[in-house]
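Inputs:
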Amino acid sequence: MQIYINNLTFAYGIKTVINNLSFTLNQGDYLVIKGKNGSGKTTLIKCLLGINDVKSNTIFYDDVDVNLFKQWTKFGYVSQSFDDFNYEFPITVSELLNVSSAKGVDEQTRLKLLDQMKIFNIQNQNINSLSGGQLQRVFIVRAMLNNPKILILDEPTASIDKQNKEFFYETVERLNEEGITIILITHSDEIENLNYSHILTMHRDTSNDYKVRIPLQKGGHTL
Amino acid sequence: MILSFFTDLFQQEFLLRALLAGLMLGILAPLLGSIVVVRRLSFIADTLGHFSLVGISFSLFMSSIGFVTFFEKEFYIGIVFSIIGGLLIEFFRRSYKNYKEISMVIVISLGAALSAIFFALASATGSLYEYLFGSILTINDESFYLILITLFIVSIVFVIFGKKIIAVSFDEMNAKFMGINVGMFQWVFIVMLSIVVSVLLEAAGVLLISSLMVIPVAAAMRVGWSFKATVIISVIFSELSVLIGLWMTYSLNIPSGASIVSINIIILLIVALTKRISNSRRIKKTSSISS
Protein backbone atom coordinates (compact mmCIF):
# COMPACT_ATOMS: atom_id res chain seq x y z
CA MET A 1 0.00 0.00 0.00
CA GLN A 2 1.31 3.44 -0.93
CA ILE A 3 1.23 6.30 1.58
CA TYR A 4 1.06 9.73 0.00
CA ILE A 5 1.17 12.89 2.09
CA ASN A 6 0.43 16.13 0.35
CA ASN A 7 0.99 19.48 2.08
CA LEU A 8 -0.15 18.23 5.47
CA THR A 9 -0.66 20.97 8.04
CA PHE A 10 -1.93 20.29 11.53
CA ALA A 11 -2.52 22.62 14.46
CA TYR A 12 -3.70 22.28 18.03
CA GLY A 13 -5.74 25.45 18.33
CA ILE A 14 -3.44 28.21 17.12
CA LYS A 15 -0.25 26.17 17.59
CA THR A 16 0.89 24.79 14.25
CA VAL A 17 2.58 21.46 14.92
CA ILE A 18 3.00 20.21 11.38
CA ASN A 19 3.48 22.70 8.58
CA ASN A 20 3.31 21.77 4.91
CA LEU A 21 4.69 18.26 5.12
CA SER A 22 4.78 16.14 1.96
CA PHE A 23 6.22 12.71 1.24
CA THR A 24 5.50 9.36 -0.38
CA LEU A 25 6.20 5.91 1.03
CA ASN A 26 5.86 2.71 -0.96
CA GLN A 27 5.08 -0.76 0.29
CA GLY A 28 8.16 -2.20 2.04
CA ASP A 29 9.78 1.13 2.92
CA TYR A 30 11.22 1.72 6.38
CA LEU A 31 10.77 5.27 7.65
CA VAL A 32 12.40 6.57 10.79
CA ILE A 33 10.95 9.76 12.27
CA LYS A 34 13.24 11.56 14.67
CA GLY A 35 13.04 14.81 16.57
CA LYS A 36 12.84 16.22 20.07
CA ASN A 37 9.87 16.07 22.41
CA GLY A 38 7.15 18.36 21.14
CA SER A 39 8.38 18.38 17.56
CA GLY A 40 5.17 16.71 16.38
CA LYS A 41 6.22 13.09 15.85
CA THR A 42 3.29 11.50 17.66
CA THR A 43 0.95 14.12 16.20
CA LEU A 44 1.99 13.05 12.71
CA ILE A 45 1.35 9.38 13.58
CA LYS A 46 -2.09 10.26 14.92
CA CYS A 47 -2.85 12.07 11.67
CA LEU A 48 -1.75 9.01 9.70
CA LEU A 49 -3.94 6.73 11.81
CA GLY A 50 -7.03 8.89 11.43
CA ILE A 51 -7.06 9.69 15.15
CA ASN A 52 -6.38 13.39 14.59
CA ASP A 53 -8.82 14.98 12.17
CA VAL A 54 -7.03 16.26 9.07
CA LYS A 55 -8.24 18.19 6.03
CA SER A 56 -9.25 16.26 2.93
CA ASN A 57 -6.68 15.82 0.16
CA THR A 58 -3.72 15.70 2.56
CA ILE A 59 -3.22 11.98 3.32
CA PHE A 60 -3.90 9.14 0.88
CA TYR A 61 -3.61 5.38 1.10
CA ASP A 62 -3.52 3.90 -2.40
CA ASP A 63 -5.38 6.98 -3.66
CA VAL A 64 -8.04 6.76 -0.93
CA ASP A 65 -8.34 9.85 1.26
CA VAL A 66 -7.66 9.11 4.94
CA ASN A 67 -11.07 10.54 5.85
CA LEU A 68 -12.74 7.91 3.66
CA PHE A 69 -10.31 5.08 4.36
CA LYS A 70 -11.87 1.99 5.92
CA GLN A 71 -9.30 -0.82 5.81
CA TRP A 72 -7.66 -0.08 9.15
CA THR A 73 -6.91 -3.75 9.76
CA LYS A 74 -4.03 -3.23 7.31
CA PHE A 75 -2.34 -1.23 10.07
CA GLY A 76 -0.57 -2.47 13.15
CA TYR A 77 0.13 0.11 15.82
CA VAL A 78 2.18 0.04 19.00
CA SER A 79 1.72 3.27 20.94
CA GLN A 80 4.14 5.15 23.11
CA SER A 81 4.33 3.54 26.59
CA PHE A 82 1.04 1.73 25.82
CA ASP A 83 -0.80 4.48 27.66
CA ASP A 84 -4.07 3.91 25.85
CA PHE A 85 -4.35 0.49 27.43
CA ASN A 86 -6.48 0.12 30.56
CA TYR A 87 -4.25 -1.66 33.06
CA GLU A 88 -4.88 -3.29 36.43
CA PHE A 89 -7.89 -5.38 35.53
CA PRO A 90 -6.63 -8.97 35.28
CA ILE A 91 -6.33 -10.37 31.75
CA THR A 92 -3.87 -12.97 30.50
CA VAL A 93 -1.68 -12.58 27.43
CA SER A 94 -3.57 -15.24 25.50
CA GLU A 95 -6.95 -13.76 26.49
CA LEU A 96 -5.86 -10.34 25.25
CA LEU A 97 -4.54 -11.72 21.97
CA ASN A 98 -7.66 -13.82 21.51
CA VAL A 99 -10.03 -10.84 21.80
CA SER A 100 -7.70 -8.69 19.68
CA SER A 101 -7.75 -11.04 16.71
CA ALA A 102 -9.81 -10.00 13.71
CA LYS A 103 -12.00 -12.57 11.99
CA GLY A 104 -10.12 -15.50 10.53
CA VAL A 105 -7.01 -15.24 12.68
CA ASP A 106 -6.54 -18.63 14.26
CA GLU A 107 -4.78 -19.99 17.34
CA GLN A 108 -1.89 -21.21 15.16
CA THR A 109 -1.03 -17.66 14.02
CA ARG A 110 -1.03 -16.42 17.62
CA LEU A 111 1.19 -19.22 18.85
CA LYS A 112 3.62 -18.71 15.98
CA LEU A 113 3.94 -14.99 16.71
CA LEU A 114 4.38 -15.63 20.44
CA ASP A 115 7.12 -18.09 19.60
CA GLN A 116 8.84 -15.66 17.21
CA MET A 117 8.80 -12.94 19.84
CA LYS A 118 10.10 -15.41 22.45
CA ILE A 119 7.17 -14.98 24.82
CA PHE A 120 5.53 -18.34 24.24
CA ASN A 121 6.01 -19.31 27.89
CA ILE A 122 4.20 -16.28 29.34
CA GLN A 123 0.94 -16.66 27.43
CA ASN A 124 -1.04 -17.64 30.52
CA GLN A 125 0.37 -14.89 32.70
CA ASN A 126 -1.57 -11.86 33.81
CA ILE A 127 -0.63 -8.78 31.74
CA ASN A 128 -0.10 -6.81 34.97
CA SER A 129 2.68 -9.10 36.14
CA LEU A 130 4.88 -8.62 33.04
CA SER A 131 8.08 -6.62 32.73
CA GLY A 132 8.36 -3.66 30.33
CA GLY A 133 10.17 -5.74 27.72
CA GLN A 134 7.67 -8.60 27.88
CA LEU A 135 4.78 -6.19 27.67
CA GLN A 136 6.27 -4.52 24.63
CA ARG A 137 6.58 -7.88 22.86
CA VAL A 138 2.97 -8.69 23.69
CA PHE A 139 1.86 -5.42 22.10
CA ILE A 140 3.99 -6.07 19.04
CA VAL A 141 2.38 -9.51 18.70
CA ARG A 142 -1.00 -7.85 19.02
CA ALA A 143 -0.09 -5.33 16.30
CA MET A 144 1.08 -8.19 14.06
CA LEU A 145 -1.93 -10.47 14.67
CA ASN A 146 -4.08 -9.33 11.80
CA ASN A 147 -1.28 -9.55 9.27
CA PRO A 148 -0.81 -5.79 8.71
CA LYS A 149 0.80 -4.22 5.66
CA ILE A 150 2.00 -1.21 7.64
CA LEU A 151 3.44 -1.30 11.15
CA ILE A 152 3.65 1.96 13.09
CA LEU A 153 5.77 2.02 16.23
CA ASP A 154 5.83 5.09 18.46
CA GLU A 155 9.02 5.20 20.55
CA PRO A 156 8.70 1.56 21.40
CA THR A 157 12.05 1.21 23.18
CA ALA A 158 11.47 3.96 25.75
CA SER A 159 11.01 1.64 28.70
CA ILE A 160 13.12 -1.42 27.92
CA ASP A 161 16.70 -2.55 28.54
CA LYS A 162 19.54 -2.78 26.02
CA GLN A 163 19.23 -6.48 25.28
CA ASN A 164 15.52 -6.16 24.55
CA LYS A 165 16.17 -3.14 22.36
CA GLU A 166 18.53 -5.13 20.14
CA PHE A 167 16.05 -7.96 19.87
CA PHE A 168 13.33 -5.44 19.06
CA TYR A 169 15.26 -3.77 16.23
CA GLU A 170 16.19 -7.16 14.78
CA THR A 171 12.50 -8.10 14.80
CA VAL A 172 11.53 -4.86 13.06
CA GLU A 173 14.15 -5.46 10.40
CA ARG A 174 12.95 -9.02 9.84
CA LEU A 175 9.34 -7.81 9.43
CA ASN A 176 10.54 -5.14 7.00
CA GLU A 177 12.37 -7.76 4.98
CA GLU A 178 9.10 -9.71 4.79
CA GLY A 179 7.66 -6.69 2.95
CA ILE A 180 5.91 -4.82 5.75
CA THR A 181 6.15 -1.03 5.64
CA ILE A 182 7.66 0.25 8.88
CA ILE A 183 7.19 3.70 10.39
CA LEU A 184 9.28 4.04 13.53
CA ILE A 185 9.45 7.03 15.83
CA THR A 186 12.54 7.51 17.90
CA HIS A 187 14.35 10.33 19.63
CA SER A 188 17.24 8.34 20.90
CA ASP A 189 20.76 7.84 19.59
CA GLU A 190 20.03 4.40 18.24
CA ILE A 191 19.35 5.55 14.71
CA GLU A 192 22.82 4.78 13.36
CA ASN A 193 22.28 1.06 13.95
CA LEU A 194 19.02 0.96 12.06
CA ASN A 195 18.59 -0.28 8.54
CA TYR A 196 15.99 2.23 7.41
CA SER A 197 15.27 3.46 3.90
CA HIS A 198 13.92 6.94 4.73
CA ILE A 199 14.35 9.38 7.55
CA LEU A 200 12.26 12.39 8.54
CA THR A 201 13.63 14.91 11.02
CA MET A 202 11.06 16.99 12.78
CA HIS A 203 11.88 20.30 14.44
CA ARG A 204 10.31 22.48 16.98
CA ASP A 205 11.29 25.78 15.52
CA THR A 206 11.67 28.32 18.29
CA SER A 207 11.17 31.37 16.09
CA ASN A 208 7.97 29.87 14.74
CA ASP A 209 6.48 27.53 17.28
CA TYR A 210 6.23 23.83 16.29
CA LYS A 211 7.21 24.28 12.69
CA VAL A 212 8.27 21.24 10.73
CA ARG A 213 10.08 21.95 7.57
CA ILE A 214 12.88 19.48 6.99
CA PRO A 215 11.88 17.40 3.96
CA LEU A 216 12.13 13.66 3.72
CA GLN A 217 15.67 12.51 3.08
CA LYS A 218 16.71 9.25 1.50
CA GLY A 219 19.17 7.56 3.77
CA GLY A 220 20.17 4.59 5.85
CA HIS A 221 22.73 1.89 5.51
CA THR A 222 21.29 0.07 2.56
CA LEU A 223 21.52 3.10 0.29
CA MET B 1 -33.86 -17.66 61.84
CA ILE B 2 -32.17 -19.11 58.79
CA LEU B 3 -34.43 -22.16 58.95
CA SER B 4 -37.60 -20.09 58.99
CA PHE B 5 -36.26 -18.15 55.99
CA PHE B 6 -35.96 -21.40 54.09
CA THR B 7 -39.38 -22.71 55.02
CA ASP B 8 -40.92 -19.34 54.18
CA LEU B 9 -39.11 -19.38 50.87
CA PHE B 10 -41.22 -22.29 49.68
CA GLN B 11 -44.43 -21.10 51.26
CA GLN B 12 -44.35 -17.44 50.28
CA GLU B 13 -44.43 -16.96 46.55
CA PHE B 14 -43.20 -13.35 46.73
CA LEU B 15 -40.09 -14.40 48.61
CA LEU B 16 -39.11 -17.06 46.08
CA ARG B 17 -39.72 -14.58 43.26
CA ALA B 18 -37.55 -11.99 45.01
CA LEU B 19 -34.78 -14.56 45.47
CA LEU B 20 -34.80 -15.64 41.82
CA ALA B 21 -34.91 -12.02 40.66
CA GLY B 22 -32.03 -11.24 42.99
CA LEU B 23 -29.97 -14.13 41.66
CA MET B 24 -30.49 -12.97 38.08
CA LEU B 25 -29.53 -9.41 38.98
CA GLY B 26 -26.57 -10.91 40.80
CA ILE B 27 -25.28 -12.13 37.43
CA LEU B 28 -26.19 -9.03 35.42
CA ALA B 29 -24.68 -6.42 37.74
CA PRO B 30 -21.07 -7.70 37.95
CA LEU B 31 -21.08 -8.83 34.30
CA LEU B 32 -21.76 -5.29 33.08
CA GLY B 33 -19.80 -4.00 36.07
CA SER B 34 -16.61 -5.70 34.84
CA ILE B 35 -16.79 -3.85 31.54
CA VAL B 36 -17.59 -0.59 33.32
CA VAL B 37 -14.58 -1.03 35.64
CA VAL B 38 -12.19 -1.90 32.80
CA ARG B 39 -13.30 1.22 30.95
CA ARG B 40 -12.78 3.31 34.11
CA LEU B 41 -16.36 4.44 34.11
CA SER B 42 -17.34 3.29 37.60
CA PHE B 43 -19.72 6.22 38.04
CA ILE B 44 -21.60 5.73 34.80
CA ALA B 45 -24.21 3.38 36.28
CA ASP B 46 -25.15 5.88 38.99
CA THR B 47 -25.33 8.62 36.39
CA LEU B 48 -27.60 6.60 34.11
CA GLY B 49 -29.62 5.55 37.16
CA HIS B 50 -30.32 9.17 37.99
CA PHE B 51 -31.53 9.72 34.45
CA SER B 52 -33.67 6.62 34.62
CA LEU B 53 -35.18 8.18 37.73
CA VAL B 54 -35.91 11.33 35.72
CA GLY B 55 -37.88 9.11 33.32
CA ILE B 56 -39.81 7.55 36.18
CA SER B 57 -40.59 10.86 37.88
CA PHE B 58 -41.52 12.41 34.54
CA SER B 59 -43.95 9.54 33.92
CA LEU B 60 -45.46 9.98 37.39
CA PHE B 61 -45.86 13.69 36.66
CA MET B 62 -47.45 13.09 33.25
CA SER B 63 -49.83 10.51 34.75
CA SER B 64 -50.73 12.92 37.52
CA ILE B 65 -51.86 15.53 34.99
CA GLY B 66 -53.89 13.03 33.03
CA PHE B 67 -51.60 11.51 30.37
CA VAL B 68 -51.96 7.98 31.67
CA THR B 69 -51.97 5.68 28.63
CA PHE B 70 -48.41 6.20 27.49
CA PHE B 71 -46.82 7.03 30.80
CA GLU B 72 -48.15 4.30 33.05
CA LYS B 73 -45.21 2.09 32.07
CA GLU B 74 -42.68 4.26 33.80
CA PHE B 75 -40.02 1.55 33.56
CA TYR B 76 -39.74 1.89 29.78
CA ILE B 77 -39.68 5.67 29.96
CA GLY B 78 -36.88 5.18 32.49
CA ILE B 79 -34.85 3.19 29.94
CA VAL B 80 -35.38 5.86 27.27
CA PHE B 81 -34.23 8.60 29.66
CA SER B 82 -31.29 6.51 30.74
CA ILE B 83 -30.17 6.27 27.10
CA ILE B 84 -30.60 10.05 26.78
CA GLY B 85 -28.36 10.36 29.87
CA GLY B 86 -25.78 8.17 28.14
CA LEU B 87 -25.85 10.39 25.06
CA LEU B 88 -25.41 13.48 27.24
CA ILE B 89 -22.36 11.91 28.92
CA GLU B 90 -20.82 11.26 25.48
CA PHE B 91 -21.66 14.81 24.43
CA PHE B 92 -19.95 16.41 27.45
CA ARG B 93 -17.08 13.91 27.28
CA ARG B 94 -16.11 15.38 23.94
CA SER B 95 -16.03 18.88 25.38
CA TYR B 96 -13.76 17.84 28.28
CA LYS B 97 -11.55 15.20 26.69
CA ASN B 98 -9.03 15.00 29.50
CA TYR B 99 -11.54 15.33 32.33
CA LYS B 100 -14.03 12.65 31.47
CA GLU B 101 -15.48 12.52 34.98
CA ILE B 102 -16.70 16.12 34.65
CA SER B 103 -19.31 14.96 32.14
CA MET B 104 -20.71 12.48 34.68
CA VAL B 105 -20.96 15.12 37.40
CA ILE B 106 -22.89 17.39 35.04
CA VAL B 107 -25.29 14.65 33.95
CA ILE B 108 -25.80 13.16 37.43
CA SER B 109 -26.57 16.62 38.84
CA LEU B 110 -29.03 17.34 36.07
CA GLY B 111 -30.65 13.95 36.69
CA ALA B 112 -30.98 14.52 40.42
CA ALA B 113 -32.38 18.02 39.92
CA LEU B 114 -34.93 17.03 37.28
CA SER B 115 -36.06 14.00 39.31
CA ALA B 116 -36.64 16.13 42.40
CA ILE B 117 -38.61 18.65 40.36
CA PHE B 118 -40.86 16.03 38.69
CA PHE B 119 -41.44 14.09 41.92
CA ALA B 120 -42.54 17.34 43.56
CA LEU B 121 -44.77 18.35 40.61
CA ALA B 122 -46.35 14.88 40.64
CA SER B 123 -46.84 15.15 44.43
CA ALA B 124 -45.15 11.74 44.65
CA THR B 125 -42.29 12.52 47.02
CA GLY B 126 -43.70 9.82 49.32
CA SER B 127 -42.49 7.09 46.96
CA LEU B 128 -39.03 8.64 46.69
CA TYR B 129 -37.53 6.45 49.44
CA GLU B 130 -38.46 3.32 47.52
CA TYR B 131 -36.72 4.59 44.38
CA LEU B 132 -33.64 5.73 46.26
CA PHE B 133 -33.03 2.46 48.10
CA GLY B 134 -35.07 -0.11 46.20
CA SER B 135 -37.07 -3.05 47.41
CA ILE B 136 -36.62 -6.45 45.89
CA LEU B 137 -39.31 -8.06 48.07
CA THR B 138 -42.11 -6.11 46.43
CA ILE B 139 -41.04 -7.01 42.91
CA ASN B 140 -44.06 -8.00 40.81
CA ASP B 141 -44.48 -10.56 38.04
CA GLU B 142 -43.96 -8.03 35.28
CA SER B 143 -40.66 -6.82 36.71
CA PHE B 144 -39.59 -10.40 37.26
CA TYR B 145 -40.06 -11.26 33.60
CA LEU B 146 -38.37 -8.02 32.55
CA ILE B 147 -35.29 -9.10 34.50
CA LEU B 148 -35.46 -12.54 32.90
CA ILE B 149 -35.70 -11.06 29.39
CA THR B 150 -32.88 -8.61 30.14
CA LEU B 151 -30.65 -11.45 31.32
CA PHE B 152 -31.50 -13.36 28.16
CA ILE B 153 -30.71 -10.39 25.87
CA VAL B 154 -27.49 -9.49 27.67
CA SER B 155 -26.33 -13.13 27.51
CA ILE B 156 -26.92 -13.21 23.76
CA VAL B 157 -25.09 -9.90 23.26
CA PHE B 158 -22.15 -11.24 25.25
CA VAL B 159 -22.06 -14.54 23.38
CA ILE B 160 -22.05 -12.75 20.01
CA PHE B 161 -20.04 -9.59 20.76
CA GLY B 162 -18.19 -10.57 23.96
CA LYS B 163 -14.74 -10.63 22.34
CA LYS B 164 -15.24 -7.24 20.74
CA ILE B 165 -16.67 -5.74 23.91
CA ILE B 166 -13.60 -6.83 25.87
CA ALA B 167 -11.18 -5.65 23.16
CA VAL B 168 -12.71 -2.17 22.96
CA SER B 169 -12.93 -1.87 26.72
CA PHE B 170 -9.26 -2.56 27.26
CA ASP B 171 -8.03 -0.46 24.37
CA GLU B 172 -10.46 1.77 22.55
CA MET B 173 -7.85 3.24 20.24
CA ASN B 174 -6.48 -0.09 19.06
CA ALA B 175 -9.90 -1.60 18.45
CA LYS B 176 -9.99 0.20 15.12
CA PHE B 177 -7.07 -1.88 13.85
CA MET B 178 -8.97 -5.07 14.67
CA GLY B 179 -11.75 -3.98 12.34
CA ILE B 180 -14.14 -3.06 15.15
CA ASN B 181 -16.62 -0.23 14.67
CA VAL B 182 -16.01 1.61 17.96
CA GLY B 183 -18.90 4.06 17.51
CA MET B 184 -21.33 1.18 17.06
CA PHE B 185 -19.92 -0.47 20.16
CA GLN B 186 -20.51 2.68 22.25
CA TRP B 187 -24.16 2.59 21.21
CA VAL B 188 -24.72 -1.08 21.97
CA PHE B 189 -22.98 -0.64 25.31
CA ILE B 190 -24.97 2.43 26.40
CA VAL B 191 -28.31 0.86 25.42
CA MET B 192 -27.47 -2.41 27.20
CA LEU B 193 -26.24 -0.58 30.28
CA SER B 194 -29.35 1.63 30.35
CA ILE B 195 -31.63 -1.41 30.37
CA VAL B 196 -29.63 -3.15 33.10
CA VAL B 197 -29.48 0.01 35.23
CA SER B 198 -33.24 0.43 34.90
CA VAL B 199 -33.98 -3.14 36.05
CA LEU B 200 -31.46 -2.79 38.90
CA LEU B 201 -33.11 0.44 39.99
CA GLU B 202 -36.23 -1.27 41.26
CA ALA B 203 -34.32 -3.78 43.37
CA ALA B 204 -31.38 -1.73 44.58
CA GLY B 205 -32.50 1.88 44.33
CA VAL B 206 -30.78 4.62 42.40
CA LEU B 207 -28.18 5.29 45.09
CA LEU B 208 -26.85 1.73 45.17
CA ILE B 209 -26.79 0.63 41.52
CA SER B 210 -23.11 1.37 41.04
CA SER B 211 -22.24 -0.47 44.23
CA LEU B 212 -23.85 -3.68 43.00
CA MET B 213 -22.01 -3.40 39.71
CA VAL B 214 -18.61 -2.27 40.93
CA ILE B 215 -17.93 -3.68 44.42
CA PRO B 216 -18.03 -7.43 43.60
CA VAL B 217 -15.74 -6.69 40.66
CA ALA B 218 -13.38 -4.66 42.84
CA ALA B 219 -13.13 -7.62 45.23
CA ALA B 220 -12.66 -10.15 42.41
CA MET B 221 -9.86 -8.04 40.85
CA ARG B 222 -7.78 -8.67 43.97
CA VAL B 223 -7.85 -12.43 43.50
CA GLY B 224 -8.52 -12.99 39.78
CA TRP B 225 -5.66 -14.31 37.65
CA SER B 226 -7.36 -13.88 34.28
CA PHE B 227 -10.26 -11.91 32.82
CA LYS B 228 -12.54 -14.93 32.77
CA ALA B 229 -11.66 -15.94 36.34
CA THR B 230 -12.20 -12.39 37.59
CA VAL B 231 -15.64 -12.14 36.03
CA ILE B 232 -16.67 -15.57 37.39
CA ILE B 233 -15.40 -14.74 40.89
CA SER B 234 -17.23 -11.39 40.82
CA VAL B 235 -20.48 -13.20 39.95
CA ILE B 236 -19.91 -15.64 42.85
CA PHE B 237 -19.30 -12.77 45.29
CA SER B 238 -22.34 -10.99 43.95
CA GLU B 239 -24.62 -14.05 44.33
CA LEU B 240 -23.36 -14.63 47.85
CA SER B 241 -24.27 -11.04 48.72
CA VAL B 242 -27.73 -11.46 47.21
CA LEU B 243 -28.39 -14.64 49.25
CA ILE B 244 -27.20 -13.27 52.58
CA GLY B 245 -28.57 -9.80 51.86
CA LEU B 246 -32.03 -11.08 51.02
CA TRP B 247 -32.13 -13.16 54.18
CA MET B 248 -31.19 -10.02 56.18
CA THR B 249 -33.80 -7.95 54.38
CA TYR B 250 -36.49 -10.49 55.13
CA SER B 251 -35.63 -11.16 58.74
CA LEU B 252 -34.62 -7.66 59.83
CA ASN B 253 -37.01 -5.74 57.58
CA ILE B 254 -34.36 -3.44 56.06
CA PRO B 255 -34.05 -2.20 52.44
CA SER B 256 -32.76 -4.93 50.10
CA GLY B 257 -30.28 -2.76 48.17
CA ALA B 258 -28.68 -1.62 51.40
CA SER B 259 -28.30 -5.10 52.88
CA ILE B 260 -26.89 -6.61 49.65
CA VAL B 261 -24.40 -3.76 49.28
CA SER B 262 -23.31 -4.11 52.93
CA ILE B 263 -22.53 -7.80 52.40
CA ASN B 264 -20.66 -6.89 49.20
CA ILE B 265 -18.51 -4.46 51.16
CA ILE B 266 -17.85 -7.05 53.88
CA ILE B 267 -16.68 -9.53 51.21
CA LEU B 268 -14.44 -6.84 49.71
CA LEU B 269 -12.88 -6.13 53.11
CA ILE B 270 -12.31 -9.84 53.84
CA VAL B 271 -10.68 -10.33 50.43
CA ALA B 272 -8.50 -7.23 50.79
CA LEU B 273 -7.37 -8.20 54.30
CA THR B 274 -6.68 -11.84 53.43
CA LYS B 275 -4.72 -10.73 50.39
CA ARG B 276 -2.68 -8.30 52.45
CA ILE B 277 -1.89 -10.89 55.13
CA SER B 278 -0.89 -13.53 52.57
CA ASN B 279 1.27 -10.97 50.72
CA SER B 280 3.12 -9.89 53.84
CA ARG B 281 3.67 -13.55 54.79
CA ARG B 282 5.17 -14.19 51.38
CA ILE B 283 7.47 -11.18 51.76
CA LYS B 284 8.57 -12.42 55.20
CA LYS B 285 9.20 -15.87 53.78
CA THR B 286 11.33 -14.58 50.90
CA SER B 287 13.25 -12.21 53.13
CA SER B 288 13.98 -14.99 55.62
CA ILE B 289 15.21 -17.19 52.74
CA SER B 290 17.46 -14.47 51.40
CA SER B 291 18.88 -13.66 54.85
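Residues 256-290 of chain B form the longest helix (35 residues). Flag for discussion at group meeting.
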